[in-house]
Amino acid sequence: MTTSGPIKDFPAPGLRDPFRYITGHNEKGQGVFLQTDHGDHRAQMLGGAAAQNIIYSAPSNPIQLTDNADLEFARKNRPAVHVPNGVCVRMIDFAPGTESNMHRALTLGIGTVCEGEVELSVDSGEKRVLRPGDVSINRGAMHRWRNTSSDKPARMIFTMLDVEPIIVNGKALEFDMGYLMKEYSEYADGEGPNKKA
Length: 197
Hints:
The protein is mostly beta strands.
């Protein structure tokens, strides 16, 4: 990624720290707020090109909510790009001018722009500019993200769902993160410097 100004931590300067409100049930079976916080496993990404905040993750789909099993998993494990057979919801703040390399995760990636403008390019050369509220549904396509602003951060939230092998023209697509894999490889097993015990 290239950037005109590094982000030292989540949230990026100028963007608010989002609250996360997690519901559950009390002993009467009534809905309650179990926790109010700012998310798990925040970290600078790629030397300040971006910063992330894991909003939610679970190891299976359907998700096991009984006895808050999902919340215990999310607290203890920082996911890699996605959780095999599960779900990962990641908020990313992009530094001004940041541009990723072309990459592909073998997932269904649902990305929503929260702040700023972000250009999405695919390897055919097609491009779209996404603005707040716009959503991309990436079905395994090679793609690149670029914060179009040279002086303001941008924010997106991504829901990453595991998929069956993706076959295009009779050939299985391959996972290809390029140098972005440096950010995720050490967390493939839930380990790494930001893992919470």
